[in-house]
Design brief:
about 140 residues; alpha/beta; Nucleotidyltransferase, domain 5
Length: about 140
């Protein structure tokens, strides 16, 4: 703060802020140069354990139409009258509602079409035709 004596008005006082700005700049430089030590908590990151691949069993439902007119569901003989009820029982608790139909070498298409119709009415969403090449992959 400076004080000026004299003049007609008497003593005049003014605030000299230049030294305050100099001090602030010096403090700013000091704090910028000082290394900031940040210390946090020690984190224990979990490590990946050995991954064991357990293949889920594939429960494929195959409805087989034989040449003599009989039917099988996964190699179990089934009568035409109980085909729809057995399929409903199989697919009642399943999330996947897909099944395959397999015909013998000489089967009328009308029988296969009627089995596909029964499968759709029993709650099967998608029906695939099983060929010998696809059967090798299952």
């Amino acid at each position: 703060m400076g004080l000026f004596l004299g003049g007609k008005r008497g003593a005049i006082s003014e605030v000299n802020i230049v030294p305050l700005i100099d001090i602030l700049l010096v403090l700013l430089v000091i704090f910028m140069i000082m290394p900031v030590r940040r210390q946090g908590l020690v984190a224990q990151i979990p490590q990946a354990g050995p991954v064991e691949f357990v293949p889920t069993p594939v429960d494929v439902v195959v409805v087989q139409v034989l040449a003599d007119g009989s039917f099988r569901i996964n190699q179990q003989p089934t009568a035409w009258e109980t085909l729809g009820a057995r399929l409903e029982g199989i697919f009642r608790l399943r999330a996947s509602r897909a099944a395959f139909i397999k015909g013998d070498g000489v089967v009328e298409f009308a029988k296969v079409a009627s089995v596909i119709d029964v499968m759709h009415s029993s709650g099967v969403d998608s029906v695939g035709l099983l060929t010998p090449e696809l059967e090798k992959g299952l």
